[in-house]
Amino acid sequence: MDIKKMRESHKLLAEYKYELGKIERGYANRTLYVNISDNTISSKPVTETMKEKFVGGKGFGLWYLWNATSPSTKWDSPENEIVIAGGPACGITQYAGTGKSLVCSISPLTGIPIDSNVGGYFGPLLKFAGWDALEVQGKADNDIIVYIDGNKGVVTIEEAPLEAVDGHILGEQLTEMYADNEDDKRNVAVVTAGTGAEHTRMGLLNFSFYDPRRKTTRLKQAGRGGIGTVFRNKKIKALVVKFSNVKGNLNNAYDQSIINKTGIKYHKEIHDLDHLQNNMRKIGTANIIEVMDEYDLLPVMNFQYGSHPDTEKIKSTVFIEKYITQGVQDGCWYGCSMACAKAADNFTLKTGPYKGQKVTVDGPEYENAAGLGSNCGIFDPAAILELNFYCDTYGIDTISFGTATAFAMECYGRAIINKEATGGLELNFGNFETAVELLHQMSRGEGFGTVIGQGVHRMKKMFVEKYGADADFLFDIGMEQKGLEYSEYVSKESLAQQGGYGFTNKGPQHDEAWLIFMDMVNNQLPTFEDKAEALHYFPMFRTWFGLYGFCKLPWNDIVPEGNQYTDEPAKVPEHVQNYLDVAYGVTGKRLKVSDMIRESERVYNFQKIFNIRMGKGLRKDDKAPYRSMGPVTKEEYESRQERYDKQLKEIGYHIEGKTTEEKIAQLRKYREDQYEQLMDAVYKRRGWNSKGVPKIEYLKEIKMDLPELIEVVKDLQ
Amino acid sequence: MKYLAKDNSKCIQCGNCETVCSKTYFKEDNYEKSCIQINKEGDPEINVCNQCGECIDICPVVAIKRDKLGVVRIDKKICVGCFMCVGFCPQLSMRQHDDYIEPFKCIACGLCVKECPTGAIYIDEKSDDEARELKLDEVFRR
What we know:
Radius of gyration of chain A: 24 Å
Oligomer: heterodimer
Largest interface: A-B, 33 and 24 residues
Mean pLDDT of chain B: 97
Largest sheet of chain B: 2 strands, antiparallel
Helix content of chain A: 40-55%
Low-confidence stretches of chain A: none
Strand order of the largest sheet of chain B: 1-6
Structural class of chain B: alpha+beta
Number of helices of chain A: 29
Strand content of chain B: 5-15%
Helix content of chain B: 10-25%
Mean pLDDT of chain A: 97
Structural class of chain A: alpha+beta
Low-confidence stretches of chain B: none
Number of domains of chain B: 1
Number of strands of chain A: 17
CATH class of the largest domain in chain A: Alpha Beta
Order of helices and strands of chain B: EHEEHEEHHEH
Radius of gyration of chain B: 15 Å
CATH architecture of the largest domain in chain A: 4-Layer Sandwich
CATH topology of the largest domain in chain A: Aldehyde Ferredoxin Oxidoreductase,  A, domain 1
CATH superfamily of the largest domain in chain A: Aldehyde ferredoxin oxidoreductase, N-terminal domain
CATH class of chain B: Alpha Beta
Distance between the termini of chain A: 60 Å
């Protein structure tokens, strides 16, 4: 690649100079606003009210997005924004998982706000460059990059015609372009999408970090909700930030000592216990592939089943032994001793434009292995890695791709669509060649790949209208809600998790709540009230990570010794205290758990009301596909007949002489009723009315009764 | 490779080694700022880096390297103060003090050896085979 030529071809559209400033207690106290329609750049103050009501991160992102948009704003409207914000703890280096950015935008899949939590160096370097958040609005005429030089205090918008679009190449090109030398490369962070993001609604953003051992640019993904699609629709090729003097105290923390102490305690814990618990340092989140299979929770063939004999071929140890480089530091920000950002090095691609090349594949994470693998019936580790690679570089969300492809495969298998519809592709479960070709089609913007790229919600409509499919059946098996594809866990046997998916703000993603073990395995949530309490506490607790710039994984993917003897092991009390200590260390705010939950309640309910403003967010929008609750088909029922028969007997239904269809109907009636009852209990606990609307008195109680919010909910009380 | 060897049975817990170490590197007589540390109660135990090099692979910015003599050293200009090396040291000999944002460790300079009245510490050599860090060219098949 001729980097010099690429840079020379840049056309400067705007330049903005700023004072470098100083971070105080985790805040730079200003936001960088960039409008790429009229090429204006400005600085906005971060106010005390913003900090009090929204804290940072996702809170700031949603607040800016609210102010930038109106109820009629669509994902591709020029006023839609992409906001990236880290949060006050973002950029500390002593505790694991403290480099997270939260990205917010109006989603092409859901039409409501999406928030996606991502690692890589962009968030921390953006803050050290002097900015708590980056707000990008408008649409460019030609491909541009936005470059923030945090050493010199200069922001530019530049037309960039020659660089690649695909993430793995563009990340390398821009890192090379803006670094002074090899040692300087880790001081450059790049955000890209990819060619597939241009032709689908499920585009993701790659956030880079330079790996000084592999000497390559690694990629972490803001995967969910199609923000990469918004990015390419705005003709943004990349966002680049550079800051060269990272030290461990740049946040000017209120009490650095408590952060040091808590961080070192945690590093020791990982050192002593990780290999006895989850092996996060060896294989990252993919350690649970076989665990999910064992508990019948691994999605197989579009969530029909929860396990498969061939899982053996893709279990975590196969990746550890054969593909994933071991023993190399893999944190996606400094100080992450959990180091789950694994990579397969020297992986030779078998298909597509990069066929034959040896690449570093960032992954597989659990969701990739499950979504691209078992859920599509593909039980081949090399196939999973290749799909993983192309999803990333093309800028395609692995979860939406996996779930949408699995849906299309099931439709194909049931002759709802045929080869004519797929453009000649044999779309059977287990067909890697077809799956990867769909990705290449997404990159090229052609063929059935672009149909799958519209997501399950739009495919359902299309299959009904174009091929006369049964709408009810597609609603049952299409694993999407609010327009977003389900992430990769079978929730059929856990009512609490059905709610954990179904009552989310952004759509069915497990980052709000993962309650399956608490509920189904350990039976710790026997009543509706218990479930409702968990579906209040955990979504609020987990929202808090995204306000401060923390990663969720170090909270409970490893637990301290003796955790099982605490009052509430599922909450991991010692780690919760760690977070309170670190947050105190950075900001000087001494929070209790109840304060932490309150901070999240404000932002969570803000997002809820934002959804309502955009036309979703009511009870009807929390309706879930039946496959997330129970067996839709005869095959599903009969494959776990003993389990379902037993439940029918327990609820007093006489199964003798009944056909499977009759039993399915009865079980469905019961389970759907349970879901509705759970919804009532959860809404009540969350301070909402039966329509799913926050009550004004509750908004007053949590001090979120802002006039613009009351305006949205007042007629829905 | 060069390292500071020890013989716990000869240590009398006088603390001279800690004094000279902290005074040399931090201009202060403070055992918490000494790379070598001796327990204050119970049978004597000398805690000091054995130059195994496990910390080399832990560092996210490759600030820790082995020098020509085999001594493991931290480049403080590169260090980002994450303290993972402190938590991961198998000997618990990587030091941290809140007055500084980088960790510190024994570099086998030998100044403490001269101050030890009993010969409990001494500079020695051991085989390069005892180095625990990865060989990256082999790992990445370069």
